[in-house]
Amino acid sequence: MDGEGKVVVGVDGSDSSVEALRLAARVAPGLGARVHAVACWHFPEMYAGYIPPDFEAFETSTAKNLAEAIQKAFGPDVPETLTSELVRGPAPAKLVEAAAGAAMLVVGRRGHGGFMGLHLGSVSTACVAHAECPVLVVHTKDDHHNNHHFRRGAAAKDAAKG
Fold it and tell me: Angle at the Cα of 86 (from 8 to 32), degrees rounded to 5?
């Protein structure tokens, strides 16, 4: 699959990845691109040697999450040009690889894992740092910014006055 003419979207089923799909579908036509949804699955290394890997279960679960995310994002109106792909491997590396030469990579701010206090998740941070194309990080309406230490507008002017 050629990189030009596609907007790659990282999908893990989280609300922010569903919103990333919606936003990518709105942006792609202006870039003369199609949307390519990528869902990554990876057997956690911490279990290697302790339990036999059930690769089929990981892949099946990821495929289900991808299908559900597409359904949540578009309902019955799935864009005709939307393609999707399951990729085995760590999401940060595989999304950067999938986006090589793409018009844009779109990811949600935070997925299902990690620490809630972080401003960006590990996948979105890695994509911003390593992707060769522009990266759009999508926030959802439910993202909380209460812990941010910046101010906008009148509040910033009042703070500057002392």
Answer: 25
Q: In sequence order, what are the residues at sequence separation of 6 or more whose Cβ sits closer than 8 angstroms to the Cβ of residue 12? A: 39, 40, 65, 69, 91, 108, 111, 112, 123
Mean pLDDT for 111-127 is: 60
Structure token pair of residue 51: 């339990």
Tokens of 89: 């491997």
98 — alpha (psi -120 to 50), left (phi > 0) or beta?
alpha
Contacts of 14 (CB under 8 A, 6+ apart): 108, 110, 111, 112
Higher pLDDT, 129 or 48: 129
**Greater pLDDT, 43 or 97:** 97
- Pinpoint the alpha helices (H) of 28-152: 55-74, 91-98, 122-130
Please write the tens of the pLDDT for every residue from 26-58: 999 999 999 999 999 887 666 556 666 677 888
CA distance 104 to 34: 11
Reported as a pLDDT band with limits 50, 70 and 90, residue 112 is very low
Q: Is residue 128 within 8 Å of residue 137, measured between CB atoms? A: yes
* Residue written as token pair 């922010």: 16
Helix intervals (H) in the chain: 15-27, 55-74, 91-98, 122-130, 153-161
